[in-house]
Amino acid sequence: MTKDDIPDEILVERVRALRKDAEAGGYILNPDDEFVRRLVKGICVNEKRYGYAACPCRLATGRRDEDRDIICPCDYRDADLEEHGACYCALYVSPAVAAGERSLSSIPERRPPRKNRARSVSIQGERVVLSLPVWRCRVCGYLCARETPPLVCPICKVSQDRFERFL
Questions:
Q1: Do residues 89 and 76 touch, judged by C-beta distance below 8 A?
Q2: Considering only CA atoms, which of 21, 115, 148 is closest in space to residue 72?
Q3: Fewer C-beta within 10 Å: the chain N or C terminus?
Q4: How far apart are CA 96 and CA 65, in angstroms?
Q5: pLDDT, tens digit (0-9, with 9 covering 90-100), for 61-104
Q6: Cα dist. 125→28, 88, 122, 136 in Å?
Q7: DSSP secondary structure letter of residue 87
Q8: Residue ranges of domains in the chain, CATH in brackets
């Protein structure tokens, strides 16, 4: 057994928990169970290596602050789902892909080069560095920093069109 081996019982539990969380948030995991298992194994390996669940399809630096945008589910998931029917690694898929009504194709990398990831704004007179826009759910007030608002609010379950740009 190598240091990157993940026991079967841990993989089974992680896949089960991920499916449950995805469903609770209005998302769908890829219907290919073996594919999902391999991706989850990669997430678990990254978690052992770095201490956080970095996307297995991207190169992590090992510095959480620099990799925060690629911790699964990554900041780019919703935009990829909306435009391509799946996230970059295809762990999450759209209902059309899950039903076999849409096929998967190559998904371009959305992650900006490292030097372009942050911007500075003033909040209550203090300079704050933001790497992504902040979105607010107009129903429950949930805030999130990402390229686009989530497809479904994880708190009150309203759709993406109920979000507004906050910062």
A1: no
A2: 21
A3: N
A4: 34
A5: 999 988 999 999 999 999 999 999 999 999 999 999 999 999 99
A6: 41, 37, 6, 21
A7: -
A8: 8-98 (3.90.460.10), 118-165 (2.20.28.10)
CA angle 50, 88, 27 (to 5 degrees): 95
The two three-digit tokens of residue 55, written as one number: 């996307």
Q: What is the pLDDT of residues 134-157, one digit of tens each?
A: 899 999 999 988 888 988 888 888
**Residue pointed to by tokens 């290596």:** 49
Quote the strand ranges of the chain, DSSP E. Answer: 28-29, 92-93, 119-123, 126-130, 134-137, 143-145, 163-165
Q: For residue 40, is pLDDT > 90?
A: yes
Record the tokens describing residue 2, joined without a space. Answer: 């190598």
The token pair that represents 126 in the structure block: 């203090």
Q: What Å distances lie between residue 110 and 6, 84, 106, 137, 156, CA to CA?
A: 29, 12, 12, 24, 28
How far is the C-alpha of 153 from the C-alpha of 160, rounded, in Å? 7
Query: Shortest CA distance to 33 belongs to which of 45, 19, 23, 43?
Result: 19
Taking the C-alpha atoms of residue 11 and residue 107, their distance in angstroms, rounded to an integer, is 26
